[in-house]
Amino acid sequence: MPDDKPPYAVLDIDATLSDTSKRVHFLEKRPKDWDSFFAGAKDDAVLDEGLAVATQLAEGHEIVYLTGRPERLRRDTVKWLKDNGFPEGQVFMRRNNDRRPSATMKLYRLDKLKAERPVAILVDDDVKVCAAAEKAGYTVLRADWGLDAETQPTLFEAQEKEGRT
Question: Is the pTM of this model over 0.70?
Fold first, then answer.
């Protein structure tokens, strides 16, 4: 029975759980070096605040990781989450050829999750994702402890204009 299952807590990964600051420079080049940017994801440091929030939300919620990382990084991403002590949870990633803005891609997945059971909260650093989710009626915790896409035009452009992370 669906009523027996806890609500979802949905967490972004980059700049919410992982520190992307050491690899964002790959996106400042022309052309952007996406292969190096994504190759470095497995070496990201943990954002302590993100781990604390994930751990706290795991009590009473089913954790779902919703990332703009491409599907080809699944193995490294799942390993990173496990190796760094994050709670178990489903991982939803961007299809390798999906270039929709993060807000569009993530709202689509949130709506699919909501059809299964309630989504209690979304935790994300991207201001546009947060605003779109709030407008759609989701409860949002803005992850302002990581790399701030609003003040980092390179990452913001990648997330919103190029649909790459």
Answer: yes
